[in-house]
Amino acid sequence: MPVLARVYIVRHGETQENKDGVIQGQLDTVLNKVGLEQARIVGEKLRSIPFEIAFSSDLNRAAKTAEAILAHHPGVELQKKVELRERFMGELQGKTEMTKMQVGLGDRKMESGAFFAARAETWWLKDILDGTALLPTRSDPYHILVTTHGGFIGTLTRSLIHGRRASCAPGVVVQRCLNTSVTIIDVDHTRLGLIMQWADTSHLNSSETVEENADEI
Question: Is the pTM of this model over 0.85?
Fold first, then answer.
């Protein structure tokens, strides 16, 4: 089946909160020194990809990662989307992962898992599936950059798989999603996705990556 769009989903670079095990949720945190370097490196990795469309969470850590990638693609406009934000974690935002274990997940202000998944899928339907359907037909796929958050990426891909809107290519397994990891999903003309690559970090020195994500439940 011909590929209509090839979507590169990149998690933002490291923040100090990532390193310290702090739950960020929708707090507008910034990249630390390592995160800025990770963003530069992933930008170099993706510089040969002919991006034409780019989306990012409007939170600083994701937008700055996207800007580092698009430094090699000056003609591409970055579209910042509230819908691409990480899960809202209520009163746990700004607290440590240990606090999450002690307090539990009873915060009524926290965005529910079901609502978070619906938000992610609704964005995919609107901006990726419906958006690409409006583009002129051609033989080569459209290359789309999406820069967002670890919890969002995991929730989106698992929801697409569960809803049979996407499947994994042979050998691809959905696991952890580290900072500036690159996931690739091909979308065909029937609007189905094929996850070609999951959370690749071969561009990074593994000794410098934070293995856990306090925002994921």
Answer: yes
